[in-house]
Amino acid sequence: MQLNWKWSSEKQYPLCVKLVVSILFLGLAFRLLFYRTNAFLNVSETLVSVDFQENRDRIPENGTQLSNNFNRSVSVDLDQSRYELTGKLNQYPENSTQASENPSVSPDLEQNKGQIDEHNGAHQPDNPKPSVSDSFPESRDQITKKGLEYAGFLIWHDYNNAEKCDLFTGDWIPSSSGPRYTNETCSLIEGHQNCMKNGRPDTGYLYWRWNPRDCELRPFDAELFLELMRNKSWAFIGDSISRNHVQSLLCTLSKVEQAVEVYHDEQYRSKRWHFPSYNFTVSVLWSPFLAKAATFEDYNGVSTADIQLHLDKLDSAWTNEFQSLDYMIFSSGKWFLKTAFYYENDTTLGCHNCPNKNQTELGFDFSYRKVLQNVFNFIVSSNHTGTIIYTTSSPDHFENGEWYNGGSCRRTEPVKEGELEVNELNKILRAVEMEEFEKAAAKASEWGINLKLLDVMQLSLLRPDGHPGLYRYFHPYDMDNSTKIFYDCLHWCLPGPIDSWNDLLMEMVLR
Ligand SMILES: *[C@@H]1O[C@H](CO)[C@@H](O)[C@H](O)[C@H]1NC(C)=O
Ligand SMILES: *[C@@H]1O[C@H](CO)[C@@H](O)[C@H](O)[C@H]1NC(C)=O
Ligand SMILES: *[C@@H]1O[C@H](CO)[C@@H](O)[C@H](O)[C@H]1NC(C)=O
Ligand SMILES: *[C@@H]1O[C@H](CO)[C@@H](O)[C@H](O)[C@H]1NC(C)=O
Ligand SMILES: *[C@@H]1O[C@H](CO)[C@@H](O)[C@H](O)[C@H]1NC(C)=O
Ligand SMILES: *[C@@H]1O[C@H](CO)[C@@H](O)[C@H](O)[C@H]1NC(C)=O
Ligand SMILES: *[C@@H]1O[C@H](CO)[C@@H](O)[C@H](O)[C@H]1NC(C)=O
Ligand SMILES: *[C@@H]1O[C@H](CO)[C@@H](O)[C@H](O)[C@H]1NC(C)=O
Ligand SMILES: *[C@@H]1O[C@H](CO)[C@@H](O)[C@H](O)[C@H]1NC(C)=O
Ligand SMILES: *[C@@H]1O[C@H](CO)[C@@H](O)[C@H](O)[C@H]1NC(C)=O
Fold it and tell me: Where is the Trichome birefringence-like C-terminal domain (predicted)?
């Protein structure tokens, strides 16, 4: 076991504590030789929080469309579908006929028929929940080896994080270890985030690690993670940030085993992978609003009609899968900034950003709040025995403009705390999600639901250097001047800072 951390002076513990820990450690290691690990996994949990986002990638063909349709402050319209389009092109032969199969009415429409209208099942307060169980291999040797490592991890963990360290307050510190995978070792990196392949010249952004202020964060251990996840299933549910995140996890795990894609939907938006040696399943479920929504966009990602969002109905894309999943990582937010009409009981309630439509402007915070309330109500009253994590919104880093009018991100190093501020829209999104999460977390602990927060807001804010920027395109410097190109200062390069979210996830899974 390696405990080769550089302990800073504040993190020194007295010798006697170390001695006690060593003894405990030995004891645990022995126990692990004879017992399965369940018992150790029931370490009690507190909330941990984190957030994430969306996709800004579409290039509208008509620049003018933008100024008409998008209020400047509504920067999120970074579209999705262009993104989808390119994703698809990456999957298919260049001139595939997919375009004709891609109706301007998004498939979400179909998917969402048969939605759940009600989700207030009775509660069951004393619902015991083993969050991780039976995760050890059968072979004695493996049990020994992994058991020892795991015992070490836990001991180290309890020792180090005795006071419920806040994982999300800290700093990025230089790290010589570099990325855990590259464009050569992982084939699952989406073209738009494959900064290495696309020719990003600087590599400094790869040599940092997140260091919580009051404890050490152990780097992700792919082998241990996979061991713990035998027979388990995970899903990342949300928008393009969820997709960004799932790719980071799959690539990180790929050095132990390559994931095998076993499913994709027609649009390549939702996918499922399997790790055969571990019988571990990972999915990404496309559900940018988490609620039932009809989106209308043409093949180029230009809106052909306004979004219809049903605030009282959840998206069956994830509710149908809910009970079969052991771990779920939700994220949402950015899509709520788009122009949309809001419905409740199938009747219009109002809208956001729709002047001259004779509708009440309700604001995106109104709809985001309503939807999150429904999502959390559903979760809290679900009797689910797995682990459910809500990822907070992560900020974008467009400077000197928005994504569509010249905004860029050219930094090559993290910033210090206080150097950048969260913009107004992100502040509003965050306020909503934090308030609703806190309320839900209180109920969740009462009803025995394992709900946690992965709070990536602050740590992401410090990484303006981690976005693809122009390197969302392959060799952007080769493009001729007539091509209108946009920076992506929202998603993350892979490898990149988003990989550290998995360190946090692992910590949360173990706690
Ligand atoms: C977009 O451009 C095409 C061709 O340049 C034009 O026919 C179409 O009307 C434009 N659409 C909008 C909304 O401006
Ligand atoms: C965008 O919204 C802001 C605030 O809601 C408003 O002041 C501004 O006039 C709007 N701009 C456009 C182009 O609609
Ligand atoms: C592209 O389309 C052409 C004609 O439409 C077809 O002959 C060719 O096989 C296609 N290429 C691929 C890679 O499918
Ligand atoms: C995984 O499932 C298989 C088949 O149900 C079972 O034999 C095995 O013990 C399980 N492994 C773990 C670690 O739960
Ligand atoms: C990976 O990126 C490098 C440039 O950083 C490039 O030379 C190489 O061709 C890329 N490999 C793949 C498989 O994309
Ligand atoms: C794989 O895991 C699932 C539970 O997620 C279990 O039902 C199934 O039996 C396992 N299969 C094998 C071959 O272990
Ligand atoms: C929708 O229906 C519910 C229950 O039937 C009712 O309480 C609520 O007020 C209705 N909302 C609207 C906007 O009609
Ligand atoms: C605006 O809506 C109200 C009530 O929904 C309706 O009475 C009124 O006729 C509408 N006005 C216009 C110009 O459509
Ligand atoms: C949760 O469990 C309780 C008690 O078993 C049950 O009444 C309720 O219907 C369950 N809720 C859901 C959503 O399954
Ligand atoms: C791009 O624009 C620059 C001046 O802005 C010009 O010198 C150059 O020739 C152009 N390149 C191409 C490929 O059009």
Answer: 219-508
